Amino acid sequence: MSAPSLDLSAFARCGLIESPTPIQHLPRLSQRMGGAQIYVKRDDLSGLGGGGNKLRKLEFLMGEALASGADTVITVGARQSNHARLTAAVAAREGLSCELVLARTVPREDEAYSNNGNILLDELLGARIHDVPAGTDVMAFAANRADELRQAGRTVYIVPLGGSSAIGCLGYASAAAEILAQAHQSGLKFDHIILPNGSGGTQAGLVAGMLAMGQDPTCIMAHTVLAPTERALANTEAKVAQTLALLRSPATVGTQDIVIKNGQLGLGYGLPTDAMREAVRMLASTEGLLIDPVYGGKAFAGLLQDIRDQQFAPEAKILFLMTGGLPGLFAYRSAF
Predict the structure, then answer these.
(1) Whole-angstrom distance, CA of residue 217 vs CA of residue 281
(2) How far apart are the C-alpha atoms of 148 and 129, rounded to whole Å?
(3) Cα–Cα nearest to 88, from 115, 134, 120
(4) Can you give the C-alpha Rg of the chain in angstroms?
(5) Which of 173, 245, 266, 319: disulfide with 273, CB 3.0–4.6 Å?
(6) Pick the catalytic residue: 46, 81, 199, 249?
(7) Within 13 Å of residue 279, how many CA atoms lie on the same side as its CB?
(8) Element containing residue 132 per DSSP (H, E)
């Protein structure tokens, strides 16, 4: 019996990653945590522009942009946005102009945060950066800038925050099928799939993919790193519904299909916590793996806390989605 699959051939796609990305067992960390078997899905190894999960979304977003004849892309995010960096990288590879509208969302003004990490890479990749203050409506700014460029004869495609439109979510609907295929091939069944929830598109794509393939999506559990739980739930549920509609799937989504926890958010998006610091250091010192401080670090802290709180069966097989964002470590040097 073969693993469930999805047909995404109707959608324009720009090949950006060599898939499947590997799934690796973490034996030393699993032993240290007392029995739960921890695995990682290495979407941080997706290559282009320093790698990261946003490339899965950009395969479909940039596929649509290229199909529409775009010569310029604009996207938005926080100053240290991983999504912005990868959008710039894809634009460079495809020969498109790229503009990034980056807000000072996180109240950090140190030199490393302001000018190192993703910002350094954005500049190397040739993107034009619009540095805007906290509270700016970045999508309105992007729309106004797109109008200016169109009046100058450019063909502009706007990529939403985090790449998390229904089109972008297709990247993780595809990843859901990829994970099931890898599990089937290796004879594994993952009891839980853990990830961060920021703009919501990664979890929404995974849940939509599972539902469209007739699978139970409640094995997928996210830790919110951006919004309060209720807002994260509503945002993710809406994106799942939009993605299922795009897939023309008869499946429906309810709040019960989306599992999001809020215990690791701390004081807010991009603000370090002691639990995040411990998680980053533990993963590095036991398995030699590096994880970012904004998304993966907080979600991995949640995984570790849930194991300590006996939220998982002792021999549960847990898959953690490593979403990338390594440049953020350099931006957060003072936090460690």
Answers:
(1) 30
(2) 16
(3) 120
(4) 19
(5) 266
(6) 81
(7) 26
(8) strand 128-132
Q: Is 125 helix (H, G, I), strand (E, B) or coil?
A: coil
DSSP symbol at 21: P
List residues bridging with 98 in a β-sheet.
Answer: 73
Whether 322 contacts 43, CB under 8 Å: yes
| Residue with token string 């830790």 | 223
Query: With b meaning 16 or more CB within 10 Å and e meaning fewer, what string describes 237-248?
Result: bebbbbbbebbe
Strand order in the sheet with 37-42: 23-25, 37-42, 317-322, 192-197, 220-224, 259-261
What single letter denotes the amino acid at residue 327? P
Identify the CA nearest to 232 among candidates 272, 190, 260: 260
The DSSP element (H or E) to which 156 belongs, if any, is: strand 156-159
Alpha carbon 144 to its chain centroid, in Å, reads: 26
Residue with the two structure tokens 């910002």: 119
Per-residue pLDDT in tens (0 to 9) along the chain, 336 residues: 788 999 999 999 999 998 899 999 999 999 999 979 999 999 999 889 999 999 999 999 999 999 999 999 999 999 999 999 999 999 999 999 999 999 999 999 999 999 999 999 999 999 999 999 999 999 999 999 999 999 999 999 999 999 999 999 999 999 999 999 999 999 999 999 999 999 999 999 999 999 999 999 999 999 999 999 999 999 999 999 999 999 999 999 999 999 999 999 999 999 999 999 999 999 999 999 999 999 999 999 999 999 999 999 989 999 999 999 999 999 999 999
What's the rounded Cα separation, in Å, for the pair 331 and 336? 11
Is 9 tagged catalytic? Answer: no
Angle at the Cα of 56 from the Cα atoms of 132 and 157, rounded to 5 degrees? 50
Cα(304)–Cα(155) distance, integer angstroms: 47
Q: Which residues contact 231 (CB under 8 A, 6 or more apart)?
A: none
